[in-house]
Amino acid sequence: MPRTLEGQITMEKTPSYFVTKEAPRRLCTMNCRTKLIVVVRDPVTRAVSDYTQTLSKQPGLPSFQSLALKNTSTGLVDTSWSAVRIGLYAKHLENWLKHFPLSHFLFVSGERLVSDPAGEMGRVQDFLGLKRVVSDKHFYFNQTKGFPCLKKPEGSSRPRCLGKSKGRPHPQISPEVLQRLRDFYRPFNIRFYQMTGQDFGWD
């Protein structure tokens, strides 16, 4: 990390820290006062999105169902598949809470980031002790991608939107498989709501 002067905030982002077992200890060794922002979304939707992204890079990938379930007749979910394992947010948070207090975390709803980007960004700015600068006027809804994008910044010729890998249509997946995943995640989601004090409204 670069040196940070008084009055500056240094940020880094990666989806892998939250689910990497060694990350909390390593980060605390560097600085236990670090503030942590975790964006979470419905773990079923997240798993399908993860699969869709991998499928775009590996077209010969087995079906979602064959990867998500150990056995289709019993419906046993395969937690060794990373797309499934990542959504066990309560388990990952337990690991982090061994090194950081809950007050150091802000949990951002991925769904609300789409439906109310300015509202969620307001929470982020408050959490970081920043003046609220980013507001509704900075976003527009991109119909093609299906989520908000940043409007054109001063001195730039075009708006800022997430890359081609985001906003892809998801493949058709059996409702029974999706329901099996919802049932599987439910107790983990409830535990996560209890731990964070936030109900994300995932079924």
TrEMBL record:
GO terms for molecular function: [heparan sulfate]-glucosamine 3-sulfotransferase activity. InterPro entries: NST/OST (IPR037359), P-loop_NTPase (IPR027417), Sulfotransferase_dom (IPR000863). Pfam families: Sulfotransfer_1. Residues 153-172 are annotated as: Disordered. Keywords: Disulfide bond, Glycoprotein, Transferase. It is an enzyme of class 2 (transferase). Belongs to the sulfotransferase 1 family. This is Sulfotransferase.
